[in-house]
Amino acid sequence: MRHIGLVGTTARLALGGYFTGTVIYGHIVRGFHPLPWIEGLILFPAVILLWHWLRIRRNPSEFKNISIAAVVANFALFWIFYFIAATSDMALIFYGTSILLSGVRGYAGCEILAISNLILHRDDQIGCAVFTPIDLAERWMLKARQVRRH
Predict the structure, then answer these.
(1) Sequence-separated (6 or more) residues with CB below 8 Å from residue 79
(2) What is d(CA 142, CA 133) in angstroms, rounded to the nearest whole number?
């Protein structure tokens, strides 16, 4: 079931495509380097998956931590990895593919858990902020249109 509309989907596909596209372009121009792809598509998602799996083993109930601290931590994690030269491409690949996956699936949750949520059949959220305003505005506009129709 899709939890986002056309605007949310388009925003995710645009940003995720931009993130991964910049790495693809850079590797075309400067030469292909497999390590960031291994890190961004296998290693980092595996670390997140392991953390997520261990967390739900301790407490299997659904969790949604969208507090300011969680949002800041999610943003900080991306920017820390992005500004370290050795992990910059990894950050763009991981977040880019996660965001693309969210757009394709219609997933309204957080990009950092998009892959592990898919694998674990969960809908947990932590540190969501990037697309939440878009999704809320789109839901509000849809409800307003429905009210006007009736």
Answers:
(1) none
(2) 14
Query: Which tokens sit at 103?
Result: 């757009």
Could you tell me the pLDDT band of residue 133, with boundaries at 50, 70 and 90?
A: confident
First to last CA, the chain: 25
**Can you give 95-113 as a three-state secondary structure string?**
HHHHHHHHHHHCCCCCHHH
Lowest mean pLDDT among 3-7, 9-13, 27-31, 124-128: 124-128
